[in-house]
TrEMBL record:
Protein name according to UniProt: Enkurin domain-containing protein
Cell compartments where the protein resides: Cell projection, Cilium; Cytoplasm, Cytoskeleton
Keyword Cytoplasm: yes
Enkurin domain: residues covered: 161-253
Organism whose genome encodes this protein: Phrynosoma platyrhinos
Main location: other
Pfam families the record matches: Enkurin (PF13864)
Amino acid sequence: MAALCVEESIYNLLPRIVEKPLKAPRYVSTFKPYVKRTIEQSKAQWKTIGPAKVQVPSPKEFLLKHSKEPKLPKRRKDKGGKKMLQLTVPKITDHPIMGVQCTKNFISTNAANVIMGVAKKPQQVCVDRRQGDKIVLETSGLVPKYVKKKDYGVTPKYVTKRTEEAKRAQEEYDAYVKETLRQKAMKRLSDEERESLLEGLKKNWEEVHQAFQSLSVEIDTIPKKLHKERLETEMKQLEHDIQTIEKHKVIYIANK
């Protein structure tokens, strides 16, 4: 408790002046002017927000009305070099030619043209209502125009050509199938070949049977058992083949 109490003194009542510590002078590099000059020389104007120097627009060059609307190009002469046709309206300074008269008789000329001209054929129409609605027959589809054509009913050339090509392809395919069947046709064995084949099978059976009888009486090893099974299988297969050939007198062999 005694440590927390401060000794009472008159000097403690007076405010004390706090002395601020003095800072050391700021460090400035001796190369600062050189660096500043180098940056100013290497800096480009277009790398800033905008151009460094922009010419101020003139107050006389302001936006005019209809200045942004598209304008038609000027009228040019034709490619052939001919001048454009001028207006047919006579000018004020032009004067008509006086004293020129025509001797043509238009009444007699028109009468002669009517007498010598070929009469026009009336247009064929069809009236489908009482009110008099007319339909031109030529364009209505009611007149059989296509039936009267010269090539009506004649088979088109492309159809005839396509039919001939299909017929030729079918003939080639039939010939290929016939040749394939002929090559793969079954061959019949003659009696002599049948007898020789039968004798060969019997001879093979006798050889296998002789080998089978030559086996030892006691078969106690795996190789002996496998050899016996193989001989039995061969004898069964030969017996089956001999019985099949003896049963059938006519035998066909397929050509591979």
